[in-house]
Specification:
The protein has 13 helices and 6 strands. With 331 residues, the protein is mainly alpha-helical. The chain has 2 domains: 180 residues, no CATH class; 64 residues, no CATH class. The strands form 3 sheets. Strands 1-6 form a two-stranded antiparallel sheet. A two-stranded antiparallel ribbon has the order 2-3. The chain starts with a helix and ends in a 22-residue tail after the last helix. The relative contact order is 0.08.
Length: 331
């Protein structure tokens, strides 16, 4: 009986062994690995497997970093204000009011409208009271157009364009009220006609052109809806209470207040003193306009090529002003 059982057991063992000796049989190492615990099996993994795992982890980490960098770049590119591409030391002060509704200001007046009094003038003046700002030398290096420092200081002068525009608008506003400001009288001949070649008139003309360039440059695309405009009942007209996305003027004004320039003398008529101021800087103080054909208005001034090539034979009453410290002309 025992002998028969042994024969059956041997037969089963032989049958099992036959399975592992054909083409799909396990190797001795594989058979021993099947008997290992998961922990022991992990420790016995061959080195090539670990190397492949390390490469996969490194690759994943690399692509995650690249994806993160690209995401940040795309985010900052999408959110960057394209109108701030030109450097300004005040760019960091720019924030936005998502929706701001304009006042129609047609039937009812705002505090900036109507026949002016001292309070009206004060409110307008306050809009650009911080028009002179100072920045550091390092900030000045980034300006697209060089500026000068206040004489004897390291404080460099700038003016935010919005204040220049508001100044121009205020000047034009005053022209609407000649009884109060008498601006036209200052540019009129004795017979009452207006001298349109006077500096004052040219200043107003400049202001109109400045505001035109500003409006076209910023090209507000806020849509104006249309209606009959009851109770005015004069036809079909656009609604004037339009909604806009606006820059926060208060924040820009705060920056200008914090960078307000100290008091200094702006109008200097003494030409010797003016030349000394120029000589203390390293920039060219020439105008950006091409005025060479206007030499007759400046007799004998050698800034004009005409007078350098055709010396003026009349009396030059004022000392020559040179636009740079080295006192030479390009030609």
């Amino acid at each position: 009986m025992a002998s028969a059982e042994n024969r059956h057991a041997f037969a089963r063992s032989s049958s099992t062994l036959d399975v592992y000796t054909d083409g799909s049989s396990l190797t001795a190492n594989e058979e021993s690995e099947k008997l290992l615990s998961p922990e022991e099996y992990g420790r016995r993994r061959p080195r090539p497997y670990h190397r492949r795992l390390e490469v996969l982890w490194a690759s994943n980490a690399f692509f995650m970093v690249v994806a993160f960098i690209l995401a940040i770049k795309l985010y900052t590119t999408d959110c960057r204000d394209p109108s701030l591409q030109v450097y300004s030391p005040a760019n960091g002060a720019v924030s936005y009011i998502a929706e701001h509704k304009f006042t129609p200001a047609l039937g009812k007046l705002t505090e900036y409208m109507g026949y002016p009094d001292d309070e009206t003038d004060r409110k307008w003046q306050e809009l650009y009271q911080y028009n002179r700002s100072v920045i550091t030398k390092e900030e000045a290096k980034h300006l697209s157009t060089p500026t000068m420092a206040l004489p004897g200081t390291e404080d460099y002068l700038v003016e935010l364009e919005v204040y220049h525009q508001l100044h121009c608008l205020n000047v034009l506003r005053k022209l609407l009220y000649p009884e109060r400001y008498h601006l036209l009288e200052r540019v009129s001949w004795k017979n009452g006609t207006i001298n349109r070649e006077s500096y004052g008139f040219k200043h107003w003309d400049h202001c109109v052109e400045t505001l035109r360039q500003t409006l076209v440059c910023h090209a507000d695309v806020a849509p104006l809806s249309w209606h009959v405009n009851v109770p005015f009942n004069r036809g079909i007209y656009p609604r004037l209470a339009s909604t806009h996305t606006c820059r926060n003027f208060s924040q820009i004004n705060k920056w200008a207040e914090e960078h307000q320039a100290p008091e200094f003398t702006q109008k200097v008529k003494n030409r010797t003193e003016l030349q000394q101021i120029i000589d203390g800087t390293d920039i060219d103080h020439s105008t950006e306009e091409d005025l060479q054909d206007m030499y007759e208005l400046f007799p004998g001034d050698q800034w004009f090529k005409h007078w350098r090539e055709h010396p003026y034979d009349g009396e030059v009453k004022q000392p020559q002003i040179y636009p740079t410290w080295n006192h030479t002309w390009d030609d």
